[in-house]
Amino acid sequence: MGITIIGTGHHVPGTPVTNDQLSRVMDTSDEWIRPRTGIAQRHFVAEGEGVSDLALIASRKAIADAGLEPEDVDFIIFATMTPEFIFPGSGGLLGAKLGIPRVPALDIRQQCAAIPYGLQVANGLVETGAASTVLLIGADAHAGFMPWEDWDVLYGESDRPVSEEAWARGNRHRGLAVLFGDGAAAMVLRRAEGERGFLGADLHSDGRLFDRIYIPSGGFRSRPYFTPEMFHREEHIPTMLGQDLMKTAVVELSRSVRKVAEKVGVSLDEIDWFVAHQANDRINGAVRQQLGVPAEKAPSNIARFGNTSAATIGILLDELRRDGKVKEGQLVCFFALGSGLHWGSCLIRL
Q1: Cβ neighbour number for residue 194 with a 10 Å cutoff
Q2: Closest alpha carbon to 98 in 200, 188, 226, 230
């Protein structure tokens, strides 16, 4: 069989920022955010902290959980849309921080859909003999595109009023800004024994839908690739067509889960856990209803972390494993949709 997950770990930075704290920098409230998203709080990285720093802590936990040492890892797959630098990627930085600087590192860019993609890539590496122990990371740090500058006010370190201009900027982007938080998750992957392991995937990309959620500026169509004018137009902040994105996610994710189950030859009733990307509780609830899946099989932790993009599935899985809920021998379906658009699902028997 293919790979299975032998260790997990996660890390979120700092202290949680509640919905009510967000009301200090824009016109919002817990009563507005929670019914629309399911989110009550989120975490943000500190100034100067990057995704490889978050990933380092998550990776050490996952490697220890697997009963291994960093030197046992022979391939790193790092998924993020918020790297420390335009280039290089964050995978090599993580390898150096782990003390394994010569281990190959592959950076992938499927945004919120990273884990189904990353698991299929890792499975291929192990099946072909290119690797035996893969460290798969999902980590994102969204603080850098938040639409406010008054972090001291947000954290209650100052009670001064924010400027009218800053308040208006926060309000223009609040529908997106309330969704995201920062964090990292890691999985250690090795070949499974017997009838367990990676069973199959159903993955898709459609660049025609890129504008459902994307960052308009900072690319290499312009000279230079970022200008002061772009910043003043607030094009460094993502733009999102929320209703279109939700409709697409519900239709495509429910279709993908059915397809991967059919491909593998199992019924939805045989799947023990449906571990979804934590983007919005309304989306996941609608997908669950489309599939006829009971709520107890589709857990959520978005209330405590928000949308940590590539990290969400790994954080949720690590919590489920450490709570003793997800057990060996169980069949788990991972599914996600992210900017690109990329989406898909996969099945693993642990």
Answers
A1: 8
A2: 188
- The reply to whether 307 belongs to the active site is yes
34 and 183 share a domain? yes
Spatial distance between the Cα atoms of 329 and 29, rounded to a whole number of angstroms: 43
> Using the 8-state DSSP alphabet, how is residue 104 labeled?
-
User: pLDDT (tens digit, 9 = 90+) per residue, 308-319?
Assistant: 999 999 999 999
Beta bridge partners of 96: none
Q: Name the active-site residue from 19, 307, 342, 346.
A: 307
For residues 136 and 222, state if they share a domain: no
Write out the residue range of the structural domain in which residue 278 sits.
197-349
170 lies in the same domain as 237:
no
User: What pTM does this model have?
Assistant: 0.97
Asked if 175 and 215 touch (Cβ cutoff 8 Å), the reply is no
For residues 227 and 154, membership in a common domain is answered with no
Active site residue 277: yes
Indicate which residue of 277, 280, 284, 342 is catalytic.
Answer: 277
Choice among 10, 112, 123, 346 that is catalytic: 112
**Number of compact structural domains in the chain:** 2
For the record, the structure tokens of 209 come out as 């839908």
